[in-house]
């Protein structure tokens, strides 16, 4: 009986060992499959990197335009808006239709790929925009793609130039989200090439202070820009009312007066001024003045609104930079777990290893090496992003803000001059026409 029990115990131990070996074999197979998948993803990502770096060195000018918002029906008969995006770049011509949600998904993806860096902002999400809202969105989407074209490493990314601008698949959002995630080490190499970096040091007190000051500057500027935008909007509304009153007076009031009061007093219509059939140039100038005033008001509002969103986008870059530290912290926790796991394996059975335990030890040690490399990579990547921010991006952003302000003031002055010139032309034509129709005594 005792022999039978001993045999049962031995059999049970053998079965347990077999099950353990089968389980470890399955785990090893899964690990191998995962390594193959990761290797394939890495190769695809490296290939896209090579395309990006090649196109970045190309001086081919980029032309891109967002236009023609149109309502279409999906297969489920739901209605949604699409925008035509067309143009030409180093890869050739393109023309696609994109939903606003696809613009949004694109930008979210770029934020993850380029933590810490400025990604051009998009207009706010709106439910069924119509009229002026839709026109404003088209204008702001054009500013977005224009800014993308100015930052070549964003424009020639796989997400933008190959998928967003050229994909014919039905679900572009899903296609962007399914692209291989960037490998940290290949991303570091790409970062080095784009920003011409060799070695960077750990951020010092001056660098940290510069970033903190920039964050405060952006937050303060945001508040001022919100106030400025409200003032511009109020000015726009006042000028729009004044413009409508002016055109109501000249376009309807005086014309009605000429037809109903003056016309019966005159021999023919050619003695009138505003409704004179020979005064087509005057009518065209009045119509142009109406449209030009609207363009002036819209452009100023768009520029201020874009400045406000730019500040928010730059702050968003700072926040995504901090995500690198969070990821590094997670990898460090993973590393500690692996080290604890290795310690348990080492002390099992007094350190006497079987074949299975030895394989497990080797496997964990390899995982520890990989995790330590990831920790070092995320630390170095964080240092690189901080270095680019403090030596390039912040200074460029401030310079761009000065240039934007100069452009806003210049454009405002130019648009007002053009508007006044057209107004002067209107009055000159009226004077000339009135003089030519002077009643002879």
TrEMBL record:
What is its subcellular localisation?
Cytoplasm; Endomembrane system
What SMART domains does the record point to?
PX (SM00312)
Report the principal subcellular site. cytoplasm
Pfam families per UniProt: PX (PF00787)
Q: Does the keyword Cytoplasm apply?
A: yes
Annotated PX domain ranges read 61-171
Tell me the membrane topology, using the record's own terms. Answer: Peripheral membrane protein
Coiled-coil stretches are none
GO molecular function of the protein, one example? phosphatidylinositol binding
Q: Which domain of life is it from?
A: Eukaryota
Keyword Membrane annotated: yes
Q: Which GO terms describe its biological process?
A: endocytic recycling; mitophagy; piecemeal microautophagy of the nucleus; protein transport; reticulophagy
Annotated keywords:
Cytoplasm, Lipid-binding, Membrane, Transport
One GO CC annotation: early endosome
User: Belongs to which family?
Assistant: Belongs to the sorting nexin family.
What is the protein name stated in its UniProt record? PX domain-containing protein
The protein's organism comes out as Paramecium tetraurelia
Q: Which lineage is the organism of this entry classified under, starting from the top rank?
A: Eukaryota, Sar, Alveolata, Ciliophora, Intramacronucleata
